[in-house]
Q: What sequence folds into this?
């Protein structure tokens, strides 16, 4: 448990060094330095932002009181006192910090040794008496095991804690490491023994979904299991816990809600611009698995810092499911691990052959950007997997992620865009050419030739997390003539087959810009659903780019009930129905399964995916899917990602979903 505190301090220090949080004291308290990934920076930013938001609100609301106090439980090497003191916010407030005796002793030694710290807090002596390791006029550092409540109470009384003045308790990922009976007792003790009290809690939730399973496994491997999750798995359970333990007011929200509703828009934009970032799914999943809670009792005025700006709409209500679909592992014959990946693309290039390209995953026992192409060849009752021969391998592939592949004929596919790292420019276009043979019986039968497109067509493709869709214009399909292959963007259609680039007129209100959406060909036009908008919020809109005689026109597709906003899903159209597969949404009570939208009536139904037959968490974001219309079968390939600081999870095997029941029942 002490190790998790040290790791958190290093991560906060790294976030401060990159400008996410303003804290010049962390580097003095944290002995070791290590640069963390942008995803970790964002995760610790929102944690620090939430705590500071609530602490400063408490100080503001109680500034008319002659004396107040803050008690930080499991404070570790946190710099809260020094930041508040430096900002001039502790005129009448004493800060008490409690942690394990050896942690408190280490911190006390640092404070005495480092002039920048000792200059802010005058050591008045008294340490060495009992458990007090450092004592200043407005700062007391105590070494006590929080799980020993009677010992904690005695130590705080000795240090001068006053139970009759406004008191803020802070527990930042602390109580969950204690047995529930002990943490419950501490919460109840705080409510019963202090006449004017506030409590700030930041912890994990949602242990049972795929991300939650990886999160729990991580902490278990560190020998620091999260005890509270089984009994208090969500925001509502945590809120009931505090009411039952004697608190009269309690507000709670997950960190997606906090970032959206309690962080000013200009601050959101500042953070989003600090460094190249392309792990939106894991950022939102991390935020949906942590919450901030504030509770109070006996305060003269209501203390609700989470609701001070506006009433926050909860996204946590249950999603109504129309049924469930059972997931089963595909029977495959394979000696390769190349289908464990994310950010790739899979496409049906022949009736029984699926080609998978690009992404980041596991190859030859290492995590890397994927160099090889892989195929799945369907046999009677299994799929055979293998690598593809590239007839002219060179650097034109560039090991790309988040590209698209559109199969335009039995021997030709178009690759558009993609990237290597988020800080590099987008990649261009390529043709993939393969033999005309109608079928293949073995992966070795499939060969792919890479052919570069003309440079004049390149600028349209320098993007990633986009969509590319085949449409019909003036009755012509791609491949029929030299100027009929269309590239669909949210704003315009461009000719990319030849030179020069031709703009095609588009009418109607233009949908807001987005990425990580889905796009499917339908009736000669394009259906676009969901995506992540310009302010990093999931979108729930569906649009149809309809073919007209002289161009195209945007039309809104109304759904009822409204489509739950999502992104990073895949999509297919079958028999007048739009199928949305997986993705990420902010309804943290569940994960997206299969959504079926009837394009004639607008009826929108959600189906859960039953994973009881899988022995591993099924993460349905950054995946690919292929629909086999004759069998009404959906193949899910790859998916997953870097689960914050908990490790990388990649779905190990392709999964099959039979959609016969839901497609025939509509």
A:
């Amino acid at each position: 448990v002490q190790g998790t505190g040290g790791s958190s301090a290093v991560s906060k220090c790294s976030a401060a060094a990159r400008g996410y949080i303003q804290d010049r004291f962390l580097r003095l308290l944290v002995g070791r330095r290590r640069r963390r990934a942008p995803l970790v920076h964002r995760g610790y930013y929102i944690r620090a932002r939430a705590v500071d938001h609530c602490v400063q609100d408490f100080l503001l609301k109680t500034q008319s009181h002659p004396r107040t106090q803050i008690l930080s439980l499991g404070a570790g090497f946190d710099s809260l006192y020094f930041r508040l003191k430096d900002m001039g916010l502790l005129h009448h407030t004493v800060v008490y910090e409690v942690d394990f005796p050896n942690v408190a002793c280490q911190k006390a030694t640092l404070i005495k040794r480092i002039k920048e710290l000792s200059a802010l807090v005058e050591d008045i002596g008294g340490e060495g008496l009992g458990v007090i390791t450092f004592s200043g006029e407005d700062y007391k550092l105590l070494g006590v095991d929080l799980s020993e409540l009677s010992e904690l109470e005695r130590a705080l009384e000795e240090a001068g804690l006053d139970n009759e003045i406004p008191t803020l308790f802070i527990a930042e990922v602390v109580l969950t490491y204690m047995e529930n009976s002990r943490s419950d007792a501490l919460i109840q003790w705080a409510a019963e023994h202090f006449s004017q009290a506030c409590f700030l809690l930041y912890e994990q939730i949602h242990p049972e979904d795929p991300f939650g399973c990886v999160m729990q496994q991580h902490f278990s491997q560190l020998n620091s299991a999260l005890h509270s999750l089984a009994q208090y798995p969500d925001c509502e359970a945590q809120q009931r816990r505090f009411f039952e333990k004697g608190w009269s007011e309690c507000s709670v929200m997950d960190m997606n809600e906090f970032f959206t509703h309690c962080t000013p828009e200009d601050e959101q934009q500042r953070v989003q611009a600090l460094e190249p970032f392309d792990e939106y799914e894991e950022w939102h999943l991390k935020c949906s698995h942590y919450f901030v809670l504030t509770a109070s009792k006996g305060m003269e005025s209501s203390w609700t810092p989470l609701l001070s700006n506006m009433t926050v709409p909860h996204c946590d209500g249950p999603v109504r499911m129309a049924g469930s679909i059972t997931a089963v592992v595909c029977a495959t014959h394979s000696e390769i691990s190349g289908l464990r990946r994310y950010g790739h693309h899979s496409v049906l290039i022949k009736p029984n052959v699926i080609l998978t390209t690009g992404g980041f995953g596991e190859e030859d026992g290492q995590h890397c950007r994927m160099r090889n192409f892989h195929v799945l060849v369907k046999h009677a009752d299994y799929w055979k997997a293998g690598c593809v021969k590239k007839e002219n391998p060179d650097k034109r592939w560039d090991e790309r992620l988040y590209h698209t592949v559109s199969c335009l004929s039995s021997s030709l596919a178009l690759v558009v865009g993609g990237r290597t790292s988020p800080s590099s420019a987008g990649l261009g276009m390529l043709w993939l050419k393969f033999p005309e043979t109608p079928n293949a019986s073995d992966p070795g039968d499939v060969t792919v030739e890479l052919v570069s497109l003309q440079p004049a067509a390149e600028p349209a493709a320098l993007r990633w997390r986009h969509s590319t869709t085949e449409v019909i214009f003036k009755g012509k399909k791609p491949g029929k003539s030299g100027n009929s292959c269309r590239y669909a963007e949210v704003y315009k259609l461009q000719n990319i087959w030849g030179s020069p680039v031709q703009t095609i007129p588009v009418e109607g209100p233009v949908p807001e810009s987005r990425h990580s959406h889905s796009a499917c060909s339908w009736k000669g036009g394009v259906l676009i659903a969901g995506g992540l908008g310009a302010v990093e919020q999931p979108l729930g809109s569906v649009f149809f780019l309809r073919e007209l005689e002289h161009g195209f026109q945007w039309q809104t597709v109304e759904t009822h009930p409204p489509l739950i906003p999502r992104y990073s899903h895949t999509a297919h159209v079958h028999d007048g129905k739009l199928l949305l597969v997986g993705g990420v949404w902010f309804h943290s009570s569940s994960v997206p399964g299969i959504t079926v939208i009837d394009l004639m009536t607008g009826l929108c139904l959600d189906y859960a995916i039953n994973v009881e037959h899988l022995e591993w968490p099924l993460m349905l974001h950054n995946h690919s899917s292929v629909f086999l219309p004759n069998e009404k079968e959906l193949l899910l390939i790859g998916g997953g990602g870097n689960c914050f600081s908990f490790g990388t999870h990649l779905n190990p095997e392709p999964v099959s979903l039979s959609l016969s029941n839901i497609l025939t029942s509509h």
